[in-house]
Design the sequence.
């Protein structure tokens, strides 16, 4: 466990995410109306990278209000979503009921998932913007391993850590890539989904994690790493000069003439099979 300053990071972050749920549900960014009408929130490459999920049990850790979780359900998985925000779980349950999808949503801290869920799954999934809220990746990787059936798959899609170290208006490097466990404190009142809705509970604590830290944590549990893929596109407007790709809603790339950089990455790991 890294040294973590004596701050109420979990309570502070939960208060912020509890407030954000209502903002996000009403935002064009998440487009809940479009999702209810059939829009898929997964990136186009995710189903191919993870592989078939039909008939599989799948748990989505840090699921927010469940759009990605329910997108996997539409592809045939039996899904469980877990998040620490009660309003998020309430909204995810409401959406599942509205769609007639038999999904389970559980309110719990991700570090407590094995004890709270009390079972294993064929697939563990974690989507974009999740790891930066966790101070201890070794403990997190242990949770992933503890939740997987023998031979089960873990799939992660995340924002690339290079995005953490640059300025907001340029690609100038202004922050350290390596982190000593000290949280990054963000007190901006603007929410990424709707900058026009200022937040009351704006402050959050976040921990950047490099690729080596993520891979080493997963490998240390005995999970077999099958691939690490990096992508030159991202699903939010990280810098104002990014260009949305034609025909691809909220998929952005750097303009022609600028350096090509990794903006997101994915990892697939597999749990060991039962010995014969």
Sequence:
């Amino acid at each position: 466990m890294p040294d973590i300053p004596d701050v109420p990071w979990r309570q502070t972050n939960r208060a912020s995410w509890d407030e954000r749920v209502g903002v996000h549900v009403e935002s064009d960014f998440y487009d809940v109306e479009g999702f209810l009408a059939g829009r898929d929130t997964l990136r186009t490459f995710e189903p191919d990278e993870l592989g078939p999920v039909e008939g599989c049990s799948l748990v989505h850790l840090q699921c927010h209000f469940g759009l990605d979780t329910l997108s996997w359900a539409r592809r045939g998985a039996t899904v469980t979503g877990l998040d620490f925000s009660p309003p998020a779980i309430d909204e995810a349950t409401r959406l599942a009921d509205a769609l007639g999808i038999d999904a389970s949503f559980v309110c719990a801290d991700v570090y407590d998932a094995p004890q709270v869920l009390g079972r294993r799954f064929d697939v563990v999934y974690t989507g974009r913007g999740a790891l930066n809220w966790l101070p201890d990746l070794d403990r997190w990787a242990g949770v992933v391993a503890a939740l997987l059936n023998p031979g089960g798959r873990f799939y992660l899609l995340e924002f690339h850590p290079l995005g953490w170290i640059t300025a907001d208006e340029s690609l100038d490097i202004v922050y350290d890539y390596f982190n000593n466990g000290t949280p990054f404190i963000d007190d901006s009142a603007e929410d990424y989904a709707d900058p026009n809705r200022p937040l009351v509970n704006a402050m959050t604590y976040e921990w950047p994690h490099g690729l080596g830290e993520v891979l080493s944590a997963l490998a240390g549990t005995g999970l077999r790493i099958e691939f690490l893929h990096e992508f030159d596109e991202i699903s939010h407007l990280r810098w104002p000069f990014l260009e949305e790709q034609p025909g691809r809603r909220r998929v952005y790339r750097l303009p022609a003439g600028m350096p090509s950089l990794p903006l997101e990455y994915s990892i697939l790991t597999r749990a060991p099979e039962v010995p014969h």
Q: What stands out?
A: The domain at 9-167+179-267 is CATH 3.40.50.150 (Rossmann fold). The chain has eight helices and eleven strands. The longest strand covers residues 148-159. The chain has one domain: 9-167+179-267.
